């Protein structure tokens, strides 16, 4: 049976991650540990034996460097592939918090941070991308992937924790977003025998149409 196979990956640790910054659209390089993580991820992907038909990356440096490590590893085993940098895969923009650590944000915006820590209701952060806008962006990206790729394609994607949470919710057909702590280079793999439930009747509940092969898989990282 032919499936559209989509493998989602978070980028390796960046210098901004190491410093505890809310990076958003800023673009720091991978840390030394992040470079090691990217190599471990690349080796794991080769060991699994899958090869992508298409490779996508967020254009931000930490994601591109992770993707380039994967592409280099594939080229070394005789499978050269070019990746596509896609703006839709950028991290969610944290507005005025961008580039700050949480401690710095609490110093500069104490009232706003206090509200965020004490209430579950949505608190708008000035200049930030809203959660609904991020969900719409994720939905549009998934719709685009479904339009341009066929059953039998193997799509690999390197992106960021925040937008990946939204994309995963869309892939699962959820009407909400689950908080999923996603470690650097963690993998989520979905196989779809149909891209939509619209043309299905009773078969929409047949799990053979929708497989989860990996979910937050980071077995390649040291414990």
Could you explain how this protein is built, in words?
The protein has 223 residues and is of the alpha/beta class. The chain has helices at residues 15-19, 32-48, 61-76, 102-108, 110-118, 131-148, 161-171, and strands spanning 4-10, 54-57, 83-85, 154-159, 187-192, 210-217. Helix 2 packs across helix 3 (61-76). The longest helix has 18 residues, at 131-148. It is globular. The mean pLDDT is 94.
Task: Considering the chains and any ligands shown, give keywords for the structure.
223 residues, alpha/beta, six-stranded mixed β-sheet, 7 helices, 37% helix, 15% strand
Radius of gyration: 18 Å
Which spans of ≥5 residues are poorly predicted at pLDDT below 50?
Answer: none
Mean pLDDT score: 94
Portion in helices: 25-40%
Q: What is the helix tally? A: 7
**Percentage of β-strand residues:** 15-25%
Shape: globular
Number of strands: 6
Helix and strand composition category: alpha/beta
Compute the separation of the termini in Å: 36 Å
Spatial order of the strands in the main sheet?
A: 3-2-4-1-5-6
Give the helices and strands as they follow along the chain: EHHEHEHHHEHEE
Query: How would a textbook summarize the main sheet?
Result: 6 strands, mixed
């Amino acid at each position: 049976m032919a499936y559209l196979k989509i493998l989602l990956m978070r980028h390796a640790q960046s210098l901004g991650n190491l410093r505890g910054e809310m990076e958003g659209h800023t673009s720091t390089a991978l840390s030394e540990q992040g470079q090691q993580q990217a190599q471990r991820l690349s080796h794991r992907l080769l060991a699994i034996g899958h090869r992508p038909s298409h490779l996508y990356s967020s254009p931000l440096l930490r994601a591109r460097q992770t993707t380039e490590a994967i592409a280099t590893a594939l080229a070394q085993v005789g499978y050269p592939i070019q990746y596509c940098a896609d703006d839709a895969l950028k991290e969610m923009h944290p507005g005025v918090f961008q580039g700050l650590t949480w401690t710095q944000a609490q110093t500069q915006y104490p009232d706003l941070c206090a509200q965020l820590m004490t209430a579950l209701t949505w608190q708008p952060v000035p200049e930030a991308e809203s959660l609904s806008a991020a969900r719409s962006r994720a939905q549009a990206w998934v719709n685009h992937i479904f339009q341009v790729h066929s059953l039998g394609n193997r799509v690999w994607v390197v992106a960021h924790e925040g937008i990946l949470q939204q994309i995963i919710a869309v892939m699962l057909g959820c009407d909400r977003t689950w908080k999923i702590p996603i470690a650097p280079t963690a993998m989520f793999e979905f196989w779809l025998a149909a891209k939509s439930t619209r043309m299905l009747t009773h078969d929409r509940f047949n799990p053979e149409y929708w497989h989860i092969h990996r979910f937050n898989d980071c077995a390649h990282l040291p414990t």
